[in-house]
Protein 1
Amino acid sequence: MGNRARARIVCQSCGYESSAWMGRCPHCQGWGTMVEEAAVLPARAAARAEPGKLSELGDEADARISTGSTELDRVLGGGAVPGSVVLIGGDPGIGKSTLLLQAAGAVAAMGRKVLYISGEESARQIARRAARIGTGEGILVMAETSVEVVEGALQEQRPDLAIIDSVQTMFDHRLVSAPGSVGQVRECAARVLQVAKSQDLVVFLVGHVTKSGDLAGPRVLEHIVDTVLYFEGERHHVYRLLRAVKNRFGSTSELGVFEMTGQGLIDVLNPSQVLLAERPGGAPGSVVVAAMEGTRPLLVEVQALVAPATFGTPRRTVSGVDQNRVALLLAVLERKVGMNLGSSDAYVKVSGGVRLDEPAADLGIILALASSYRDACVDPQVVVAGEVGLTGEIRLVSGLEQRAREAAKLGFGRILLPASGARKLSVAGMEVRGVDNVDQALAELGVT
């Protein structure tokens, strides 16, 4: 039986399919996003896969390919895994192409074959950018948007690493929709994935993001690939953050930090020192928290500002932490400590663009709020870490020794921890103090 065409109505924002056209998508509520797509479904021969013994398969950790960047390798889980597809998204101009071009140069310098495919720039433009950042030797480059041609090039060249910039510019001639549409992105990504698995090569896909910060295209795109990375930061600031939201071959809690320079991106091997470089000394509402990002201890500054509410309802504005957690900690301060915060605006911010999701940040947030409310400065040589319960108790968190050693390395003299963990902790050059509840923590730092 030959090929047949099948028409369908697909939302170009979320991928919702319908049998009839509608002015508004019932799934994402977008207006004018339902578009008819006609797809040709090719007949495919069934490929028979022979089962193998799991114990006879090699260790994938030994086969990882280093990208030449310590930070990128850390986020990937130790390097790129052959046969995997990595999707990296970020705002325009944030440095996605620069990061991958530097990785391509490093992999090529190791004697591996690298193919850079661009659908947005010409080969000459890529060559000029490579020359500016001092890389490009040994990299194969082609400017192409047809996924059929890309598929053929991957099968013919058989590179160890392939970079496609970007997946939204690729198109499949069997689909009548425009490049970047739901159908095109889904089909092109699926075809690239099939080649990557069959040829055992690493593919990096660059993805655009929407105004809300999510990856453009259908949500199924994130399910197709093996790893999803987000490159974050302000375009007018020099530091960039790389984090994984999905990783089949490693942790999603690792964080990579880069500095953008005129010669490209540089790994920041000591992000704690960078994030605390501009910390004000002796300012109320400023507390340093010893956090953990995956296996890496990270010292960040938590700032809080408590001010009288100018309107009837007090404002609760946060950046870098969960708003519900701040509301919970404000309730603990009001109920267990006796601070009248119901008539005050409260603002909480984590400096440096870092987001703190772990419970160990609770103690830093609550001390910063109390410090601002009392207008009392916290000793700038103190670092804190601990989870705060609803009854005001300070609970144990993991990685206390790593947190304390990182603080000592950066010159801090005292660390405030849960009493249950502080009793058995000893770090050279660091005074370890343990507290059982919020009242003790406030008294220890003179914020009463």
Protein 2
Amino acid sequence: MKVKTIVVGPFQVNCYLYYDETAREGVIIDPGAEEQVIIKAVDKAGFRPLAVLLTHGHADHIAAVAPIMTHYRIPLFAGKGEEVLLADPSLNMSTFVGNPLTAPTPDTLLKDNELVQLGPIELRVLATPGHSPGGICYLDERAGNLFCGDTLFWGSVGRTDFPGCSHEQLIDSIERQLLTLPPGVTCFPGHGPSTTIGGEKTNNPFLSGGHIV
């Protein structure tokens, strides 16, 4: 499996292209902005997108969702409960940055532990509320790759000062759903560099193994 990271928008969101180089099929995760940049990268990579996957519905992760869906005529997947944010500029925080926006209603709302099968892509859904009510992560169990959105970062965790957030719930989600994964799993967050479960379990200052804050 191939991971291509495209950093988009003023908030430097990591949009991920995740695809099988042999089958030439894949998915687009969190197209936060700059749809033409994303489309150009997809065309250069030479694969057919099968869906847009969202880790959560905050404005910086959704601005390019509609044009990407329209361009490729593909469906949208998101966590159950996150559809409320996608439809409400005040909840997805776009109102507060002066550019109210919404995203289309998801074609599929995903639940915890659900298996998403899209061509050669097989991803396990891990519900990780806290940064947002319906936030989820996508785990490729075979490849050992985790797309964790704004739940977990290199040396940090997601913000919890937005509507519908909870710091206690976020930490519980991380420690119950993510830190129990094999230490070698590679984490691809919504912002910043990639990391590993083992590295965060040992060194992240917000988590129990990294000298709790």
Protein 3
Amino acid sequence: MKLRSPALLALVLASTPAAEAEDSGWYVRAIAGYNTLSDETVRHSTGEFAGEASFGSGFAGGGAVGYDTGPWRFEGEILYRSADLDRLEAATGPITEGNYASLGFGANVLYSFNLFGTDRATSYVGGGLVFLQEIDIDFETPEENSFSGDEFGYQLILGAEYDFGARWSGFAEYRWFDAGDPDLDAEGDALGTVNVDYANQALLFGVRYDF
């Protein structure tokens, strides 16, 4: 996998004091937001869909269950990511309809610290490993040509959370995710294999409930 992330996110802890420990316990999170995918080169074994692809925005959403020990949090998540295909300059002509999407199961480790100087607002940074149970790219020509597979990836997370009281809090976070360049096999009437880098960024929002 190619390391293209802004690595300084991981260094923010070096100069920031940790948040005061809170009561530990289980929690759940609901997550939704805006996802983008960088422009990529599509490599197709038969050449039909090979070319430079531009991707637009899309949706990301899912949920997580975790355990909070104070500064450290450990959670498992399920998250769907999608980005629309704006244009692919393929050998057979331009394609302007399609998308690149995935469904992943992740394990994250997050560290909370006090960046805002108030007990109600908490910032956090962390990362996780993700298994993409399905990663799928579609090209509409106008019939649908689909290629899919599975892959592992990793993500970096930077966020902030505000405590509303009564066990509820809201959060906003930035994620950078990379699954390298997976090989995707043809489905249905499509032919060959497709290889496209899968690196995206997301701005997510949601709510958390503590048990």
Protein 4
Amino acid sequence: MHPVHHPMRTNHHCGHRGFTLIELLVSISIVAILAGLLLTGIQASRRAVATAQCAQEIRTLETDLAKFQSEFGSYPPSSLLLYEAASDWNTVLNDSSHADYREAVRSRNALLKLWPDFTPVDSHINDDGDMTDRLVLDGAECLMFFLGGLTNASQANVPIGFSANPTNPFARGGTVRRGPYHEFALDRIIDRDGDGIMEYLDTLSGQSRPVVYFSSYEGRGYRPDDMALTGANIYLEAANVPWKRDTFQLISPGADGEYGTGGLYSTKGSSNLSVEDTDNITNFSGGTLR
């Protein structure tokens, strides 16, 4: 018997070849790029959602200011001088040489436009336990004050509206009240200057400055003094005509928390804005100003 001759078997390696260092580095780079693009997309989507939420609240505030105007016949002023003591009102209004005289007259007239029977009486306006304060309200405070009414410091500054007493809307007693005219989120009510008159933050995370309100006083014009109080400015169209020239402007400082310098703004994408202005959200723009 002839022995069976087995041909020589060649041992081929059929397993997977490992990555080279270069291939591994290229793969990691591709994954990093894709992850970066995905993260950028997620962040952009979150910013868009946050902007949309803020813009929606601005629109709600605009609607509620229109409701206020419908009930009272006028939009609120965007600056106001208030005295808690009736004697202080009387002292200033009877002395034309007093430093507060012109502003006190203007403020009293603004109140009479809303409450024709308004009569200065001692009032706990800021709920701090006394009736001796001189209160200067800026545009952010006026927005919260007129849409919310008085607030109770003992109840987490819950807005309680105004008294239905036509001569003394700032009375805290009584069950018949007018307002509030907006549903405020209590965790976004702040008091920057500690005077007991509140302001309201927008919906953006980490916000530190409130929404600012500027009245055009039914088309008579925006007041530089109102802007000086808040440190913000109105926006103008290309022809130097104010946006919302017959009503009011609402301005959120945006994600950077800065109002910017305001001024000339023509259309979305306008190059006439400072960096601080570009992320502002207003009632005349559907999103950020750029």
